[in-house]
Amino acid sequence: xxxxxxxxxxxxxxxxxxxxxxxxxxDDAELAALVLELLASCMLEHVVVTRxxxxxxxxxxxxxxxxxxxxxxxxxxxxxxxVARRGPASIAWSRGTVTMTLDPDDVLAYVxxxxxxxxxxxxxxxxxxxxxxxxxxxxxxxxxxxxDLCGRHVMVVGCGSLGSEAVRMLxxxxxxxxxxxxxxxxxxxxxxxxxxxxxxxxxxxxxxxVDIARTWRTRLEAPDLPALEALVRxxxxxxxxxxxxxxxxxxxxxxxWRLGIPHVAACCYPRARYFEVSVVSPRDHTPCLHCFRGHxxxxxxxxxxxxxxxxxYEAVPDAERAQRYTDLVAEPASQIETLRAAHVLVxxxxxLMSQTRSAWFARVLAESxxxxxxxxxxGAYGITxxxxxxxxxxxxxxxxxxHVRCDVCARTMRVALRDELPPLDDAADAAFL
Length: 433
What we know:
The chain has helices spanning about 5, 10-15, 35-40, 55-65, 105-125, 160-170, 200-205, 225-235, 250-260, 290, 305-315, 320-325, 335-355, 360-365, 425-430, and strands spanning about 25, 45-50, 70-75, 80-85, 90-95, 95-100, 155, 175-180, 210-215, 240, 265-270, 275-280, 370-375, 390, 405, 410-415. By secondary structure, the chain is α/β, with parallel strands linked by helices.
């Protein structure tokens, strides 16, 4: 296999040739840079740039990320057109054209708009959906969510897909990064690393681009909890971001709870079609991560293809599982999916550090609906529209007993039968769709 084949190995099981045969026209390649980056992770190769003065920004980004498979400028007839404007966040669709208005300085709104445009364009170009004619509900708060991160200390545990993108969005904060892995070519299509980073420790590659308090390489498959506790006590973070992608973030969440540190834990389900982000704030007396683990229910799970189910659940030797990870599934997601999960993760982390919280997040805390379930697809877990995020909490605990007690925070919670769960308050969540 070539380096370019390895680069796309994570998305080929999902997309085949992806967008390689499509052409996208854009007027401002610099303003729409993130959209193009997301589409490039789905194998977009050809771009028409009408404002030639913005082309160098695209060429620089392409050379940094994928010099072995660069985006190519084209004179061919475009399959879709992106018009990018500066201003308060909005998206307008008309046949063949999407006009997005965004402010690159409002990072969270910028990412939100870019995600929705990229995901929709990809699905239209792949024939998964028809061209939209309207945006019935805006996917973002047009007021944005800005916060001065200067002096804020963020600890990120796990610097892969979610962790590296979280670091990018939280640039300006002071970081402690914890990871033991090196960058591989397989990471580049869905993580915030460039081709020159391959072979380097992830924490060191990120350290070159943001203000790092320190990096600490530890084996995440067997975390050294006493050493982590000493690290946290020595320089307490304002928030801990748990993005290991493994079950070990549960023990790290327990440590953060015991030390009274606000934390956000995120993980993606298979293919990153669905994801969850759990917000825990000890000083706000929220449920802890363990309160909800295995107890929440809001609709049937998505059925897995037999091949993927075998990869996830069949007992095989470690060496064979590692080979399957590379050749078969290998966290099969594009940057579009993982960026959405990272964006929700970061939005919650920013809220936890903010002195003035948005009305939506204040409701999340007040109603103990601190498990956020999101979907890049629809049809499972109660998700009805791609991009949607719903809030789950104490009223969504289902099971066969009357009550359940959390072993970590000692909270006792009422349990309902599945058919007795109250309906979701969709209108209250619309602003976070």
